[in-house]
Write a structure and sequence with these properties.
The protein is an alpha/beta fold. The protein has 26 helices and 23 strands. InterPro entries: AceGlu_kinase-like_sf, Ald_DH/histidinol_DH, Ald_DH_C, Ald_DH_N, Aldehyde_DH_dom, Asp/Glu/Uridylate_kinase, G5K_ProBA, Glu/AcGlu_kinase.
């Protein structure tokens, strides 16, 4: 639960207000599906003991649509050629209210919920006895688990134009909802809109950011509102006014989307959905709260200062980080143990807890890998190619940082250390978002690392993103963030790819195969298969599918392999052939990443069949690591050159597919992309190139005075002078 929403545990009575844009479709007709989902949410909450009051808009818009239709079908040809007179708003309200309430009654009845209708005007609330009676009536209905449904009675309002006029005790259903929340002493007001919440500008503006907690002192002067509701008379301005008013009276308010099927439930679970208004909000968050764009821009500025450091100074910075981690090992492990205990209490899967835990010796190993990165050859400013374009005109192709990286990773806090080290070595700015299950571990590691970054660079070089709700705002910043690297489940990777214009460097499922050919050495095969599966089954480079040549099913090696795996506690599933021949339970899918002590076994006819299986079930465009165990060098070369994976091994465990083991020091992840970097991504994968041209006053002038030589020159100085 978001700590700023812990008060949701005490909510019993809530007001839900649904806007016209949620109730109706773009053509003005009722959005029956959305209303059905809304009623189902309210039914579930009602059965859980919540007391619910519903305030609904939509009558005027719905009535207008129906009356326009009636006028159209009853008009003569001559009348249709004349300009249409605008329909009376009160008539629209009267007609629409009937249809709206009839639908609510039908939907609630289908869910075995009883509702009641209440039409009120602002004049009603001028009468103290009415207000007292209203509260008593609502109290009685709620005690009977009835859901009262309120709407302003626009049809008989005494205001000149109630569907336009903003005067009176309340002037629309947003302000009515706020007033009712105070009158009936609600614990929470939820205002449902057609957008996710309150944005810093019009939601259609790509630079607008969702505001998760409204702080009046900060936001009231910064927000630019978009258009009013497409169908109703309300707007986000009206919702904010109502929310501020209710919050100041002690009623917490959340503005969120009514298009989602479970947002009200998520709000009550304390999840950071929509925009929260609370009288104490200014105490929870600094007025100078850093937004997504500000964080990304700060990381870019700091990275530029980092790039000005000489290679030795960046090396010393990394060595200082390694020392600081070892000096604070006790504090790190204490925070990590708290995360592991919380994850176990929450019932997380063993594979996730395994990745979360910092096992004994892990801090020392991380410090060692940082020192390896520090001692690597200088990566920035390396002259890859030097060409004389013409006399006195020298062109250099040099390496440079990518810019600002956004890394979204799950479970493993050690990934934070590795990624930060690689970013510093390559001069990149960094934004990190770890999983909530590693919140305390990530926080202490980030604090230790940034504490040793010199003031001349700034600790904002590495930003730690606090909330998952900030990710959508960050993914919009394609003008500031240069690369996104998601490390986690296939669903996480797919979600990120579909949500951003920023280039994404990623891997899909780590379905790694080991193919044991008929000429394989028995002992070598056993060692490789066991190591690839049991050493760390939660990792993405662990074996998930064992392919075995059909000849081995009769030689005994297959049975020996299966016996060894079972002895180590591995649960075996079979493909179509193996399940039939070996009496194994059939695997639900031949493309499955277990991340645990389980794997699929299948029998293939030969190396060609093994390759075909990998390409079909490894989904070849995103394959991770595949291995062949064989003593036949010709077969091995066929496998190595034909299997289209990020990494392909002969007689070596898939476990070797790792940045540290490849000599990269560490990795930001294993990429199965085809562009820029593939396989374990270390220092080189975080660099791009730029061209530097040195001349002495040359101009093109239509190429009349230039004699091109395009002569390759030796790179006498491997690095730019600035980096030496």
């Amino acid at each position: 639960m978001d700590p700023t929403r812990a008060f949701m545990n005490d909510v019993k009575r809530l007001i839900v207000k649904v806007g016209t844009a949620v109730v109706t479709r773009h053509d003005g007709r009722l959005a029956v599906g959305r209303l059905g989902a809304l009623c189902e949410q309210l039914k579930e909450l009602n059965s859980q003991g919540y007391e619910i009051v519903l305030v609904t808009s939509g009558a005027v818009g719905l009535g207008r649509q129906r009356l326009r239709y009636r006028k159209l079908v009853n008009s003569s040809l001559a009348e249709l050629q004349n300009p249409q007179v605008e329909l009376d708003g009160k008539a629209c309200a009267a007609v629409g209210q009937n249809s709206l309430m009839a639908l609510y009654d039908i939907l609630f009845s289908q869910l075995d919920v009883t509702s009641s209708q209440h039409l009120v005007t602002d004049n009603d609330f001028r009468n103290d006895s009415f207000r007292t009676q209203l509260s008593e009536t609502v109290k009685s209905l709620l005690a009977l688990k009835v859901i009262p449904v309120f709407n302003e009675n626009d049809a008989v309002s005494t205001r000149r134009a109630p569907y336009e006029d903003s005067s009176g005790i309340f002037w629309d259903n947003d302000s009515l909802a706020g007033l009712l929340a105070v009158e009936v002493k609600a614990d929470l007001l939820v205002l449902l809109s057609d957008v996710e919440g309150l944005y810093s500008g019009p939601p259609s503006d790509p630079d607008s950011e969702l505001i998760h907690t409204y702080i009046q002192e900060k936001h009231q002067a910064e927000i630019t509102f978009g258009d009013k509701s497409r169908l109703g008379r309300g707007s986000m301005t009206a919702k904010v006014d109502a929310a501020v008013c209710a919050a100041s009276s002690g009623i917490p308010v959340v503005i969120t989307s009514g298009y989602a099927t479970d947002n009200i439930i998520k709000v009550l679970q304390g999840k950071p959905v929509g925009t929260l208004f609370h009288k104490d909000a200014h105490l929870w968050s600094s007025i100078k709260e850093v937004g997504a764009r500000e964080m990304a821009v700060a990381a870019r500025e700091c990275s530029r200062w980092l790039q000005t450091l000489k290679s030795e100074d960046r090396r010393k910075l990394l060595l200082n980080i390694a020392d600081a981690l070892e000096a604070n090992e006790s504090s790190i492990l204490t925070e990590n143990e708290a995360d592991v205990a919380a994850a176990e209490a929450e019932g997380y899967e063993k594979a996730l807890i395994s990745r979360l835990a910092l096992k004994p010796g892990k801090i020392a190993a991380l410090a060692k890998s940082i020192r390896v990165i520090a001692d690597m050859e200088e990566p920035i400013g390396c002259i890859l190619k030097k060409t004389e374009l013409a006399d006195g005109l020298i062109l250099e192709k040099t390496t440079c940082p990518l810019g600002v990286l956004l890394i979204i990773f799950e479970s493993r806090p050690d990934a934070l250390v590795q990624i930060a080290s690689l970013a510093i070595r390559t001069g990149n700015g960094l934004l990190l978002k770890g999983g909530k299950e590693a919140r305390q571990s990530n926080a202490i590691l980030h604090k230790i690392i940034t504490s040793v970054i010199p003031e001349s660079i700034g600790d904002k070089l590495i930003g730690l993103v606090a909330s998952r709700e900030d990710i959508p705002d960050l993914l919009k910043l394609d003008d500031v963030i240069d690369l996104v690297i998601p490390r986690g489940s296939n669903s996480l990777v797919s979600q990120i790819k579909s949500s951003t214009k920023i280039p994404v460097l990623s891997h899909a499922d780590g379905v790694c195969h080991v193919y044991v050919d008929k000429s394989a050495n028995t002992e070598v095969a056993k060692k490789i298969v066991l190591d690839a599966k049991i050493d760390y089954p939660a990792a993405c480079n662990a074996m998930e599918t064992l392919l075995v040549h059909t000849d081995l099913s009769s030689s005994g090696l297959l049975n020996e392999l299966l016996a060894e795996l079972r002895r180590e506690g591995v649960t075996l599933y079979g493909g179509p052939k193996a399940s039939s021949l070996l009496k194994l339970p059939e695997a639900q899918s031949l493309h499955h990443e277990y991340c645990s002590l389980a794997c699929t076994v299948e029998i293939v006819d030969d190396v060609e069949a093994a390759i075909d299986h990998i390409h079909l079930h490894g989904r070849h465009v995103v394959s991770h690591t595949d291995c062949i165990v064989t003593n036949d060098l010709e077969v091995a070369e066929t496998f190595l050159h034909r299997v289209d994976s990020a990494a392909v091994f002969h007689n070596a465990s898939t476990w070797f597919c790792d940045g540290a083991r490849f000599g990269l020091g560490a990795e930001v992840g294993v990429s199965t992309s085809r562009i820029h970097a593939r396989g374990p991504v270390g220092v080189e994968g975080l660099l791009t190139t730029r061209w530097i041209l040195r001349g002495s006053g040359q101009v093109v002038n239509g190429d009349k005075g230039v004699v091109y030589s395009h002569k390759d020159l030796p790179c006498k100085h491997k690095y730019n002078l600035f980096q030496s």
